[in-house]
Amino acid sequence: MSTGSIFLIGPMGSGKSAVGRRLAGELGREFIDSDDAIEERSGVDIPFIFEREGEAGFRQRETKVIDELTQMPGIVLATGGGSAQDPVSRRHLRERGFVVYLHASVEQQLRRTKRGRERPMLKTGDPRAILTRLMASRDPQYREIAHLVVETDGRKVPSVVREIRRNMP
To answer: How much of the chain, in percent, has pLDDT values that exceed 90?
Structure first.
């Protein structure tokens, strides 16, 4: 953990971007959202990347961006929900910063993903079934690399940020 960076991981709708922005502001650090970085570098939005390259193409881009961003010192990074799927990304996250898993139940994710950002992973079927399947496969990956797990269900951003700050190294 030489960089002093904080990496937020967790499922879509867990609050990574909102918590990350607030945490970075309170700590006087730069906030980066890996999905925004992917869009910025590719010049197109994530739904377009999924449409053209499929999930595999997107994940290749994501792995490269995670490698680059985790080498930046002193940042707060919000990662995409699937960023922990890649073993190399998991290693980079775990070894290069303080990893906080923002855990949200499937119910909470459903409520939060109804609004806001377009979510390509939820366009292919029943959102509840998709989120349940994703949680079953990704939760162990998140827990494998997390230095801290924070429950976000029913909580406001300031409360989550306070818990992270209390538990930072």
So the answer is: 85
